[in-house]
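Quick one, probably user error.
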């Protein structure tokens, strides 16, 4: 395994050495008073020490609660106080945020400093250990397991791009079964011959399952550290001869632009997994052509551990519009109407998407269970179409549909058209309150770097392709699209800013 340190150096460790380090960390955690069922928070980047805490905590029945360092102290404190985390492990460069968080969370009594930090790097009331000192003084191999498979293993809060973040609990059983699903030949399909680079944050949606899927097949795992800067990624992929990589689309867009500027190539990289949000056709083609890779589009949710559907790695996409692929064995899909009744025709029709499977979380942390229908299906909140081959296409988010004059406008269709323009980097459509029509659409566009585009060109691209009454009342050009902490376009923020009159 290879991990990037804060200063950019490569830190290497074998899986045998990593297991021994993790088990000694487990022993130290138990020695210092933690007990099975206790929650230990992590505020860290994609590093070796963060992965150590993953396995050290889960291996002895503790719950690893991953926190997103890109969130504010207030949001993080709400999560920590709800979860009643006892310890927090802090990555390099995050001490100031951790210090504020400890002050706001009386439940936190101990800080572990990761990534070669020392106890002097942070102040406050909580007891402090560097991971290295903790291992030197109390590290002893602990025996893993010997608890029920339904024991909680991880806790991850939803991104909050739709509503209030909710804590999703993963069990050892759900993680194991999700790993088996991800490793299927028509899914992520990792092998011992691959070198996988994980640029998706380990604090986001169970790390997309990669921290659990890479070690079982014995493949080389490359963690990016704090940075997903295009030049940094290019150097890692080239030097480590990466074959498979995973991240949200904005990361790959940045890398494609970097290669366009520098003329570089990445000959070992064969495919990349894209998730997090819908990726327009034009952007997919651009990434594939510039990086010379196969892009595997996917769809998932934090509640699904998170893989839902994915395109097969070795089957070229058809001539039509790209889908989010099929559900690997172990996940069932169902389309229902607005009243929750199953649609009589499940193929080639749009309905509200429900899912059921062993890797679907059973409950939120603050609730007894997820809201399920009578057959045990979870309502994703997405609108979707399933084609004759079983491929899923997300057609919109139910909460983001715009109701104008009693009729629905689907932002996704407008975004796809605008996103296909070569001058456009990112595009989003949100609803703004209107005194007569209830809501009207607003189009927000981030032009590609060094490209100019005017409002009339954007409207012309839409005319004749969508109903005239779908045309946006307002077009806002922005230098940078606001992104949520997970890399998705933050539509909640866009709507709030529009309502407050900050945009347009």
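Nope, works fine. Designed sequence:
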């Amino acid at each position: 395994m290879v991990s990037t340190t804060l200063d950019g150096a490569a830190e290497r460790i074998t899986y045998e050495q990593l297991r021994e380090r993790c088990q000694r960390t487990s022993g130290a955690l138990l020695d210092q008073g933690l007990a099975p069922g206790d929650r230990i928070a992590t505020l860290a980047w994609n590093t070796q020490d963060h992965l150590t805490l993953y396995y050290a905590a889960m291996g002895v029945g503790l719950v690893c609660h991953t926190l997103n360092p890109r969130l504010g102290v207030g949001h993080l404190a709400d999560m920590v106080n709800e979860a009643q985390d006892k310890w927090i492990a802090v990555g390099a460069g995050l001490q100031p945020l951790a210090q504020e968080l400890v002050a706001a969370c009386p439940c936190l009594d101990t800080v572990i400093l990761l990534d070669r930090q020392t106890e002097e790097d942070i102040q406050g009331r909580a007891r402090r250990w560097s991971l290295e000192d903790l291992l030197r003084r109390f590290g002893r191999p602990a025996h893993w397991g010997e608890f029920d498979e339904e024991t909680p293993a991880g806790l991850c809060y939803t991104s909050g791009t739709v509503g209030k973040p909710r804590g999703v609990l993963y069990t050892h059983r759900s993680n194991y079964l999700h790993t088996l699903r991800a490793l299927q030949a028509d899914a992520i399909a990792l092998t011992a011959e691959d070198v996988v680079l994980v640029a998706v944050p380990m604090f986001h949606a169970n790390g997309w399952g990669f921290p659990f899927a890479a070690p079982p097949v014995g493949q080389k795992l490359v963690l990016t550290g704090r940075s997903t800067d295009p030049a940094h990624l290019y150097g890692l992929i080239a030097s480590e001869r990466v074959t498979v990589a995973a991240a949200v689309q904005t990361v790959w867009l940045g890398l494609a632009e970097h290669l366009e500027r520098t003329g570089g190539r990445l000959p070992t990289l064969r495919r990349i997994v894209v998730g997090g949000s819908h990726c327009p056709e034009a952007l997919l083609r651009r990434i594939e052509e510039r990086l010379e890779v196969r892009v595997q589009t996917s769809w998932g949710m934090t509640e699904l551990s998170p893989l839902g559907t994915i395109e097969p790695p070795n089957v070229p996409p058809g001539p039509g519009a790209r889908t989010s692929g099929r559900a690997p064995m172990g996940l069932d899909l169902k389309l229902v109407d607005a009243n929750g009744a199953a649609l009589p025709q499940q193929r080639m029709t749009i309905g509200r998407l429900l899912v059921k499977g062993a890797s679907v979380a059973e409950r939120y942390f603050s609730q007894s269970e997820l809201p399920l229908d009578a057959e045990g299906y979870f309502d994703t909140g997405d609108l979707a179409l399933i084609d004759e081959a079983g491929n899923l296409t997300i057609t919109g988010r139910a909460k983001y549909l715009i109701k104008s004059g009693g009729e629905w406008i689907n932002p996704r269709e407008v975004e796809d058209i605008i996103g296909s323009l070569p001058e456009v980097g990112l595009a989003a459509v949100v609803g703004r309150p209107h005194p007569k029509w209830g809501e009207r659409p607003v189009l927000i566009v981030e032009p590609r770097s060094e490209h100019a585009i005017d409002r009339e060109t954007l409207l012309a691209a839409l005319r004749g392709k969508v109903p005239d009454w779908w045309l946006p009342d307002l077009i806002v050009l922005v230098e940078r699209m606001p992104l949520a902490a997970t890399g998705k376009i933050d539509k909640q923020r866009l709507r709030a800013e529009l309502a407050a009159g900050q945009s347009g």
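The radius of gyration is 23 Å.
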